[in-house]
């Protein structure tokens, strides 16, 4: 079955892509939504432009849809890009990296249902610590490119997800009720390398934007 | 040993509809065994309880083969059917499949206790079909007037939920397993 992946470049969409490939599905395209609304509830925004480098590293075509990111209107843009991917690549289903968010997943489910496409959520309800350890165990090189909750701050930008990071998140979960994998939107990530990349991505430069507990890092990849 | 029956035709759906149930049991220290519906012949005497998981909005192959589940009529062990699992109960006991799409969180009201819940409950729906159990004499409807959301067989320990308790209502699954 040919599938398209809703791809943000973060840990969840990369892990979902890897699982789908591992289970024998053909990933025909990646679909990236580039929202101008930096506070979008629907879409990941930090370093979203660098998804093109990830797609190149995976040798999978990328379809990009820009959206002004106005609530609910962004769903029309999402539907339109999924329909475009369906037509161009003859995909029969969509893969998402949804873990806990019923807000996001139910909207995508409805669009797929309307377009008569399967909707696959291979990380759905996955334990967040298990998810983080799966990344480490399977050699995903993931860094933080956005923080949006107390007590996270600009010092977390660029941090690699490794055992030390996971232990720290477990502590923050106890103290501040932070979701360890950032499922509440506490942080966003970018994948520099994983088992389906043909080559590792290297950061050429970056710029940080934000204040207090809300920061994002825009990467430029070599 | 709890038997988990996987209705999914697509193997990638296992992660969304079956693994979350396995994780709930695993975290509670309960042993389980998983079988795909195609390979299960209704040899339920070996199992303490059975859970039939749901599947995706488009994955309806199991409905074509619902006669394979006739064993449920004679089953002596408790069964919980989730979404597609509940639809199978309806068909096996003579009900008719009807169309209704509900996706996302909805509030449902339980007048009487059902698998440890009572009153208003936010539940996660993901279905295109349902069976109206109020037309079936063998079942009592615990929730849902027009669209049966939670039902129990009047004489047997057969429970059905149209919503997905593995999302936000994990305790209902544990209540079924432990009671």
How would you characterize the overall build of this protein?
The complex is a heterodimer of chains A (222) and B (179). In chain A, 33% of the residues lie in helices and 26% in strands. Chain A has helices at residues 11-22, 51-58, 73-89, 102-114, 128-137, 163-176, and strands at residues 2-6, 26-35, 62-67, 93-95, 118-120, 141-147, 187-193, 203-211, 214-221. In chain A, strands 3-2-1-4-5 form a five-stranded parallel sheet, sandwiched between helices. In chain A, helix 3 packs across helix 4 (102-114). The model of chain A has no long low-confidence stretch (mean pLDDT 94). Chain B has one domain (2-178): 3-Layer(aba) Sandwich (Rossmann fold), CATH 3.40.50. Chain B has helices at 14-17, 19-27, 61-64, 84-92, 170-178; strands at residues 2-6, 32-36, 49-52, 79-82, 97-114, 117-131, 139-143, 150-153, 158-161. At the A-B interface, helix 4 and strand 5 of A face helix 2, strand 5 and strand 6 of B.
What structural keywords apply?
heterodimer; A: 222 residues; alpha/beta; Rossmann fold; putative n-type atp pyrophosphatase, domain 2; 2 domains; 5-stranded parallel β-sheet; 4-stranded antiparallel β-sheet; 9 strands; globular; B: 179 residues; 7-stranded mixed β-sheet; two-stranded antiparallel sheet; 5 helices; 20% helix
